[in-house]
Structures are given as structure tokens and as C-alpha cells.
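sry for the spam today, last one i promise. C-alpha cells for design, 381 residues
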């Protein structure tokens, strides 16, 4: 499980598209055109003609290898479930430093019924969200289907994401020019995954009547140019991005308001919040800790790790040693197991000698704010 912990700090870098100047290896196995269309034009694809099936294809607990910048992770996970009849959401909760989310939803944009993506997160007091629009579809010879979404203001010349679905497999690449600071976008993330635990997404879909071809959020008027983020030295925005910064603050609600993001966290239906508090004993009083939400318990009735259950992990933030609580945002309702693991040997990974407890089962209702306290972290593995 050390890849999970290692990924926490590195994957956060993609929230702000920094540090990646060279294209990285394409483990997503998406066949690329030698001269991809990197136009600044934004031409939404009409999902009344084709493309509406993207929403249904996207739902699932996707797990598999991920490469970000120059680092490989043998296992990673994104949990995509419906949050309304025409909106699907997934998030990587990085930990104390921040998170990364992407949601996909039906909207009207430029007089076209289409699908948009909202991508961004919160990192060390910097809040960013960027909006993408579906602009192309391709059918490949291996019976897979390819979708591309481009920056809703600057097109593929600024940034884009491409996703290919084949049966229960998802292949996902993301490209960025760092909001237009670089001459052209390069690949900075690539993910190859398979769908696990399908009942999680199925339950949400049945509860909400997903998917439906209804507008989840109205962008028919486009984006106000005076509200979009402008790079230093520029006179006009290049990207459909909203950004706010507050030194030392990770208050997502305050920063969302300051960014003038038209679609903020409090506007999302169905999702809830979970705060996990821990009570430290002398053995873990100065230790960092790992926090897991999973479909299955990660420990047995005696508090010892069940290694095979780690494949059911849905969220896996890493918490710094000085903190005693963590707040999960954008939480899908449902049943979970909460497991706290104190890094007793301080090796930055889940290993022998770490201290945990019997996994605690919780149930989160739609739009609920729930708090749990773990006060029995005393079992050394």
C-alpha cells in the first residue's frame, strides 16, 4: 500500500499543472494522432446525436496503475457515482494539503446540449476549478470508444482530457499547458484502470434515476470573461478557470466564494461531509496517520490487517502528524469502513509495526454532515 501514500503528495501537483515540462509515458494506451487538433476553438459535441452514453460508461470504482509526471503507482483509485440524474462525480482526497476532483454533467453550452467536466481542487490554500467541454468522439477498431473534453474557453490548445472505454476498462490521459503559460499542452497524467465494486455506482444510479439527458447546471450563457483567472502579465483569460488563494487557509467554502466559481461545493446535490477525529495515546502522540474509507473492513475483529481488503479502498488521504482530525468533502452517501493507521515506524507507508484499530463501520445519508471519533488506535501490526 505504499504507493497510495506516495501518491498523496505527488498527485496533488496536477491540481495546478505545475512541474511537468516534458510529456510522460502513455500507460493509458490511447492511440494518438501524430498531429492532434490543438485549436483554441471550442465546438461542443451535441449529445443528442452521440455521446450521452459517456455518463453511464464513466460510473464505477476505477482502480489500476497511474503515472503522474515521472512517478508510477501500481495501484490508484477513483470512485465515480451519480449525484443527480445527469451528474457524476469523483474525487481524490489527498490529505491535509488538499484534494483533486473531476465531475461530468449534462449542460447547454453554445446552443448545444453537451457534457462538461469540472476539474480542480484545493491545495495549500489555493482553490482552482477549470471547466472542459466534450468536443470529439472516436470509435476504435478494438470496440472501444474515445471521448475528448477540452478547456471550455481556450480549447485543446490550453488543456484537454481524453478517456477511452472498452468493456469494464477505462484509459484516461490529461494534458496541460499550465493554464496557457506553456506554448502547448503536454501529457502530465495517465491512468489505466478496471471497474470494481459496480454495486456502489449502481445503487446511486437507481436512487437518482441516472442517467437522464437533462441539464444539471445551466451554462447556456457561457462564462463571464471578467470572472475567469488571468495569468500574470496577460490582459485576458486563456482558460475557463476560477482561482483564489489565501495563505494558510484550506477553507473550501471561503475560497470558492472568492474565486467566483459559478458552481461551488455547496451547489452540489446529494453529497455529504464526514469528519474523522482521532484520540491519540502515548504510542502515537507525534506520529503521522493514514486514513482509509473502504467498502470492506481493512482489519479483522482483532485489529490486524486484511491485505486483500485493501483493493476495496475508495479514499486514502495522508494526514500530517500535528493534526487530530480530517474533513472529507464531496462525500457519496453510503456505507463505509473507516480505518486509521498510525505510521509508528515513520517510514511513510503501511507496514509491520504500524498501529491501528478494528475498522469502524459508518453510514452516511444524502447531504448529511457526520462526525466520528476513533479512540482505540492501539493494535500494533
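last one done:
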Amino acid at each position: 500500500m505504499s504507493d497510495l501514500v506516495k501518491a498523496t503528495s505527488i498527485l496533488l501537483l496536477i491540481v495546478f499543472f505545475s512541474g511537468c515540462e516534458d510529456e510522460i509515458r502513455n500507460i493509458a494506451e490511447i492511440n494518438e494522432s501524430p498531429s492532434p487538433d490543438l485549436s483554441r476553438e471550442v465546438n461542443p459535441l451535441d449529445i443528442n446525436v452521440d455521446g450521452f452514453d459517456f455518463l453511464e460508461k464513466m460510473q464505477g470504482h476505477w482502480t489500476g496503475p497511474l503515472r503522474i509526471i515521472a512517478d508510477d503507482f501500481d495501484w490508484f483509485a477513483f470512485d465515480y457515482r451519480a449525484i443527480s440524474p445527469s451528474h457524476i462525480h469523483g474525487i481524490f482526497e489527498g490529505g491535509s494539503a488538499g484534494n483533486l476532483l473531476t465531475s461530468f454533467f449534462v449542460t447547454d453550452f453554445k446552443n448545444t446540449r453537451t457534457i462538461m467536466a469540472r476539474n480542480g481542487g484545493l491545495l495549500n490554500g489555493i482553490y482552482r476549478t477549470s471547466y472542459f467541454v466534450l468536443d470529439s468522439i472516436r470509435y476504435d477498431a478494438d470496440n472501444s470508444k474515445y471521448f475528448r473534453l477540452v478547456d471550455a474557453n481556450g480549447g485543446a490548445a490550453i488543456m484537454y482530457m481524453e478517456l477511452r472505454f472498452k468493456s469494464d476498462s477505462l484509459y484516461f490521459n490529461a494534458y496541460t499547458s499550465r493554464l496557457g503559460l506553456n506554448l502547448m499542452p503536454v501529457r502530465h497524467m495517465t491512468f489505466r484502470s478496471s471497474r470494481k465494486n459496480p454495486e456502489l455506482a449502481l445503487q446511486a444510479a437507481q436512487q437518482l434515476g441516472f442517467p437522464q439527458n437533462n441539464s444539471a447546471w445551466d451554462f447556456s450563457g457561457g462564462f463571464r470573461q471578467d470572472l475567469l483567472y488571468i495569468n500574470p502579465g496577460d490582459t485576458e483569460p486563456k482558460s475557463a478557470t476560477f482561482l483564489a488563494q489565501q495563505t494558510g487557509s484550506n477553507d473550501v467554502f471561503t475560497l470558492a466564494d472568492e474565486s467566483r466559481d459559478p458552481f461551488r461545493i455547496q451547489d452540489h446535490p446529494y453529497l455529504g461531509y464526514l469528519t474523522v477525529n482521532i484520540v491519540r495515546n502515548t504510542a502515537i502522540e507525534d506520529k503521522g496517520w493514514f486514513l482509509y474509507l473502504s467498502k470492506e473492513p481493512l482489519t479483522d475483529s482483532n485489529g490486524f490487517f486484511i491485505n486483500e481488503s485493501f483493493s476495496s479502498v475508495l479514499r486514502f488521504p495522508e494526514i500530517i502528524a500535528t493534526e487530530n482530525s480530517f474533513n472529507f468533502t464531496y462525500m457519496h452517501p453510503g456505507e463505509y469502513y473507516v480505518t486509521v493507521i498510525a505510521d509508528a515506524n515513520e517510514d511513510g507507508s503501511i507496514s509491520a509495526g504500524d498501529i491501528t484499530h478494528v475498522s469502524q463501520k459508518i453510514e452516511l445519508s444524502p447531504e448529511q454532515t457526520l462526525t466520528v471519533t476513533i479512540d482505540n488506535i492501539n493494535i500494533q501490526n
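The chain has four helices and 21 strands. ok im logging off now
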